[in-house]
Every structure is written in C-alpha cells, then in structure tokens.
C-alpha cells in the first residue's frame, strides 16, 4: 500500500497539470500582492502616523481576510484547478486497463483507497499552497499587527465561528483556516472520484467538482443560505449555519464512501 | 550527481527560509508600533484634545433602560433581515472628561467597546437622551464633565444569543487605535 501511495502521489504531483494549476493559483496570489499589498507597503509611513485607524498589517490585508477580487476569483475556480492534475486518472486507469495490471499485484480495495486518498491530498495541497504562499509574502511586506475589533476594519463579526480566535490569536486562526480549506477542498476534489464511475468523458470527470460546487452555490443563493463556497472563506463561516455545514459535508462523505464501497464490491475486473 | 542535487536543494531551501525570516523580522522592526497601553477604571487617559477617566460601567437590560429613560424604548429596537424585531439592552460607561480643544467636535468615533470579535460604537441617539445637560458647543475648556457613553447591545446577535453571554465577556473601552489605548472594564 505504501509503495502504491508513493506511485499515485507521484502521478498526482509530478505532472504538467499540477504545475499549470499551481502556476495559475500563484498568478492570482501575485495579482493580489501587486494590486493590494504593495501599495500599502509603499504608503506605510503615513499609516503609522494615523491614530483614528489601525495600521493595515498582515492580518488585515492577507487575501483570505480581506476577500478582494483576487480572493473571490481564487475561491471560484480552485475546485477546477485542484481537479485537473489527478481526477482524470481514475477514469483513464479503467479505460486503458491499467487497473487490471495493478490489481494482479495488490488488492482492489487498497488500490481504490490509494486513489481516494491521493485525490484528497492533491486537492487539499493545490487549494492551500497558494494561500500559504500569499500569507508568507504578505508577512514579508506588512507588519504582523494584532487585530483589534474596535477598528471595524476586519470582516469577522461576532457571529463568525472563529471570530474570537482571530482577535485573540490570529496566527492560530490562520493555521485553522488552512487546515479547514485543505480538508474542505480535498473533499470537494473527491467528487471527481464519485463521477468517474458515472460519466463517460474524462474532461467531464475533471469538471464535476467545479460543477457541483458552483451548482450548490447557485441553489443556496436562491434559497437564502450559505453555501460551501461561502463558508470555505472561513471569515464568513457563521455559527447559525454550522448545522448546514455539517449536513453538506456529511452528505459528501457519505457519497464518497458509497462510491468507494460500490467500486470495491463490483466484479468488473477478473 | 544526484547527491549533489540534493545538497544544493537543501542549501537553496535553507537560504530561502532564512531570507523569508529575515524579511519578516525586518518588516516588523521597521514598522513597529508603540506598545499598547491597557488602563483600568479610575486611571486618567490624556489625549491631545481631551482627557478621560472611566469611573464605572453597567450592563442594563431593556426593561431597566425603559424605566430610567422611557424614550429609550424607541431607540433600543432593531429589525433583522428576517423582519423580526429585536429588543436591545445597553452598556453604560460612566466617565469624566476634560476638554482642551473643541474645534473638531465631540470625539464619538474615538470610543468603541470590543471583546474578541464583538464591537460596538457609541449610540448617538442614546447619548443625547442620557446626557441631556451636556451641550458640547457650550462647554468650558479645562473643566471636568460627567458623561455617560451608551452602547446598544442586541444579545440575539451573539453566538449563544443571550444576555448572560454579555456579562461573561471581557469588554474593554478602546479610546485610541494607534497607539492602542483601552480601559479594561472587566475585573481580572
């Protein structure tokens, strides 16, 4: 299993689509740094002399807190970018009979489990790597000023799940945010694992996480509740929607587990 | 050759991390702010245009506010996005202020309550209702005035949605953002 995991992780991370996806996300990060962070750095002296406002520092201007246009673009397309490197491989492995070779050497369920885990890790990594890079670069340019709620300059309100954590320990908040985004986008990426069985086109399999993600956003907007897209912007994760968050991810986990069990029990490979 | 590549990779990695740490430390040293100044009830805060000493504070329920100030019934009421009516409570901060300069008007915006992610500014309507005797345009400079800062609180907006949550919060009155000067209203 370890050897198989190593092979699958190499397939996920050492392919041109991974580099393309990471490059696009890093481009979005650069766009945010160029448009929003650098101008503040240039005018920092004038902010230091201002007593009516808090100096805009790392925890105010980081793209995941400030949620400007680059962050919106990032949250919109990340399920697509996360799915590109590896999602097609489950579909193509069956179509090209590559799987037949593998299951002669290892149990079918271990193979499918390694595919699922790799899908999860790959999606999580592509989603969080640009956020981490953005945080580090912003930290190099702006001071880490402890946020103060009294300023009114931060988007976290008293109804935010991690509102108090942000204002008491902002670095821990950042770590929690990265973990939540890793898990959240990793699980969304596993939607491709479900649809690899249901669809007959590898590109549609790769698109499926993005389609479901966007569809859920549209439906939730129509019925007036927060969607996965909203609460994976962790600053907008509100206490009154915790029930919906748990429901959404329970449904997703259940679908993934069912897809895994169905695959394992199916007698499709002799 | 592979070992050389690995060694070079490690060296480049260490140099990158060192550079990042250097930049972060340098930025925080270059743009260091003054230390924050926590004050307590009874301590005087001296600013450029005024000084303020917080004497006491109290959390007053909606019903008690209506008994003390009947007109507050019209003020301590809000409608949320579901068109439900929310009755508000109030936090009253009693203080003494002394003005050296009144050219920029009363500094309402300077004073905010906060506690974690909770934040509230002075209610101008309640301020006018409670401090009827205090007319800023007619005050004398360098004279002490007793003033009450009122803050509207809507418990339903809090996580646990209850009045009791406010009583357990470590609330502070922030008087200046840079440098950060605040009065701890809670007892440690």
Shape of chain B: elongated
How much is the radius of gyration of chain B in Å? 24 Å
Secondary structure tally, helices of chain A: 15
The rough form of chain A would be described as elongated
Q: Compute the number of helices of chain B.
A: 4
Strand content of chain B: 25-35%
Q: How many strands appear in the DSSP assignment of chain B?
A: 11
* Poorly predicted spans of chain A: none
Query: What is the ordering of alpha helices and beta strands of chain B?
Result: HEEEHEEEEEHEHEE
Give a written overview of the molecule.
The complex is a heterodimer of chains A (270) and B (188). Chain A has 270 residues and is mainly α. Helices cover 73% and strands 0% of the residues of chain A. Chain A contains 15 helices and no strands. In chain B, the strands form 3 sheets. A 5-stranded mixed beta sheet of chain B has the order 1-11-10-7-8, with no helix packed on it. Chain B starts with a helix and ends with a strand. The model of chain B has no long low-confidence stretch (mean pLDDT 88). Chain B is built from 4 helices and 11 strands; from the N terminus they run H-E-E-E-H-E-E-E-E-E-H-E-H-E-E. Helices cover 26% and strands 34% of the residues of chain B. The interface between A and B is medium-sized, with 33 and 30 residues.
């Amino acid at each position: 299993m370890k050897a198989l995991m190593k092979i699958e992780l190499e397939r996920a991370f050492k392919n041109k689509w991974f580099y393309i996806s990471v490059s696009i996300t890093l481009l979005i990060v650069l766009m945010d740094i160029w448009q929003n962070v650098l101008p503040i750095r240039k005018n920092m002296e004038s902010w230091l002399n201002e007593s009516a406002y808090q100096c805009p520092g790392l925890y105010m201007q980081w793209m995941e807190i400030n949620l400007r246009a680059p962050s919106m673009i990032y949250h919109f397309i990340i399920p697509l970018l996360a799915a590109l490197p590896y999602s097609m491989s489950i579909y193509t492995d069956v179509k090209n009979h590559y799987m037949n070779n593998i299951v002669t050497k290892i149990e079918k369920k271990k193979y499918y489990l390694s595919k699922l885990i790799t899908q999860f890790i790959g999606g999580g990594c592509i989603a969080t790597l640009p956020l981490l890079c953005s945080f580090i670069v912003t930290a190099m340019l702006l001071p880490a000023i402890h946020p103060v709620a009294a300023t009114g300059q931060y988007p976290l309100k008293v109804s935010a799940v991690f509102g108090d954590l942000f204002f008491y320990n902002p670095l821990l908040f950042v770590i929690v945010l990265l973990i939540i985004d890793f898990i959240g986008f990793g699980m969304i990426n596993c939607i491709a694992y479900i649809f690899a069985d249901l669809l007959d086109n590898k590109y549609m399999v790769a698109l499926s996480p993005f389609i479901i993600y966007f569809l859920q956003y549209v439906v939730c907007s129509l019925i007036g509740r927060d969607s996965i897209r909203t609460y994976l912007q962790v600053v907008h994760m509100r206490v009154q929607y915790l029930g919906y968050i748990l429901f959404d991810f329970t449904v997703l986990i259940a679908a993934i587990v069912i897809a895994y069990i169905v695959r394992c029990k199916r007698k499709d490979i002799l | 050759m592979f070992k050389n590549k690995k060694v070079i990779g490690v060296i480049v990695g260490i140099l990158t991390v060192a550079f990042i740490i250097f930049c972060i430390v340098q930025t925080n040293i270059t743009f260091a702010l003054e230390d924050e100044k926590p004050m307590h009830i009874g301590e005087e805060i001296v600013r450029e245009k005024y000084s303020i000493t917080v004497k006491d504070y109290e959390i007053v329920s909606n019903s008690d506010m209506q008994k003390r100030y009947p007109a507050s019934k019209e003020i301590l009421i809000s409608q949320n996005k579901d068109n439900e009516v929310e009755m508000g409570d109030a936090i009253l901060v009693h203080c003494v202020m002394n003005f050296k300069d009144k050219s920029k008007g009363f500094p309402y915006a300077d004073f905010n309550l906060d506690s974690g992610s909770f934040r509230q500014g002075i209610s101008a309507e309640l301020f006018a209702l409670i401090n009827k005797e205090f007319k800023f345009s007619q005050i004398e400079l360098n004279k002490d005035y007793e003033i009450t800062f009122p803050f509207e609180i809507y418990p339903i907006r809090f996580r646990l949605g209850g009045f009791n949550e406010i009583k357990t919060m470590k609330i502070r009155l922030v008087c200046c953002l840079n440098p950060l000067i605040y009065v701890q209203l809670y007892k440690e």
